[in-house]
Write a structure and sequence with these properties.
Number of strands: 15
Mean pLDDT: 95
Helix content: 25-40%
Shape: globular
Largest sheet: 7 strands, mixed
Number of domains: 2
Low-confidence stretches: none
């Protein structure tokens, strides 16, 4: 089969590799669409595996069942499936406490989650039993269904911090995740969404996803701009959705007293963010980190992604063959693309 293998930072080669063996109690999924995620790009362009290569990334996986093992009874050949990359034991302290996204059972966590930049992927019987596999209706395209994964964490974040009416929400980062956030915030009833970025073309594209006001922080002080736009009070909630420490530092200066700041984007491992702790203390600012989603949230996010209520077609700006994965990375990094979906069979 064809697959995009990472041999090191920025060294991605599309090659022929062996098709995976079908587990006796599992299945082989023929991948029809796989989204290119910001975390994929970060992993593919850094030494993410500390020399342990080659490796196949890709976790926004959709396709249809091509083969089933003799003991597999739940799915049939031809079934159209979405693979949620999270797999949870539902028995550890984290799962029982309601935070299954932090499941501490590492063996379970490895059951699914990557291998999507290829034509086929094996799905174990254990993954099938644990859950996180959802059937795609016949009238929904594979490209649309692939957005169920990136929407999941956004859905969970906005639900967890209760974004809704009459919030003024600031989103730092007009990438795909920021655009998902804006659209979903409007669906949830946010009264005003302000988007901040350094890329004017991205800000222009973001306006179609419910953004009310844009701020280009490359030529405007974003902290001062938010103060002016909120009558000096600050926003109800601020979400830093970039992989940059500086936006985390800025975010606490944009939120109102008693407001909430969310650190959504992962920053470089080992890096430190400088925060004005007196401002946090005396202004009663709450700070929350966000990562992942529960099974319930992943299922509801998937249902939203494939529903008429969500303008999926506006988000997928580029569809490319797997052979052009490097071009997809560049389109995303420059801001020309909102969401790139790759087709392994084109």
């Amino acid at each position: 089969m064809k697959a995009a293998l990472m041999y090191g930072p920025n060294d991605i080669r599309v090659e022929e590799v062996a098709r995976p063996q079908c587990p006796g109690d599992g299945l082989i999924l023929k991948i029809m669409s796989v989204g290119l995620c910001g975390s994929d790009i970060r992993n593919l362009t850094t030494d993410s595996r500390k020399g342990n290569y080659p490796f196949i990334y890709g976790h926004e996986i959709v396709g249809f069942v091509d083969e089933i093992g003799p003991s597999e009874t739940r799915y049939q050949v031809g079934d159209r499936l979405f693979l949620f990359p999270g797999t949870y034991c539902m028995e550890c302290d984290e799962c029982v406490s309601g935070h299954s996204e932090n499941c501490s059972d590492t063996a379970v966590a490895k059951l699914a989650g990557t291998g999507g930049f290829a034509q086929y992927v094996a799905v174990s019987g254990e993954k099938i039993r644990r859950g996180g596999i959802y059937e795609i209706p016949d009238d929904v395209s594979f490209d649309a269904a692939s957005l169920g994964e990136p929407l999941t964490s956004v859905f969970a974040c906005l639900e967890n911090v209760k974004v809704g009416y009459p919030d003024t929400l600031v989103i730092i980062g007009a990438g795909p995740i920021g655009c998902f956030m804006s659209q979903l915030a409007k669906i949830r009833g946010a009264q005003k969404v302000i988007m901040i970025d350094i890329n004017e073309s991205r800000l222009d594209m973001a306006k179609q996803f419910g953004v009310d006001i844009t701020v280009n922080s490359s030529d405007t002080d974003p902290i001062e701009a938010i103060r002016k736009l909120t009558g000096g009070k600050g926003a109800d909630k601020v979400i830093s959705a970039t992989p940059v420490n500086a936006t985390q530092t800025q975010s606490i200066h944009m939120v109102k007293k008693g407001g909430l700041v969310v650190f959504f984007g992962g920053v470089p491992k080992g890096s430190m963010t400088e925060l004005d702790c007196n401002l946090i203390h005396y202004n009663n600012i709450w700070i929350k980190g966000h990562f992942g989603a529960s099974y319930s949230q992943s299922k509801r996010a998937f249902q939203l992604a494939i529903s008429p209520s969500f303008p999926t077609e506006k988000f997928v700006t580029h569809v490319l063959p797997l052979d052009q994965i490097t071009e997809g990375i560049q389109l995303t990094r420059t801001g020309e693309a909102i969401k790139v979906v790759l087709h392994p069979w084109d």
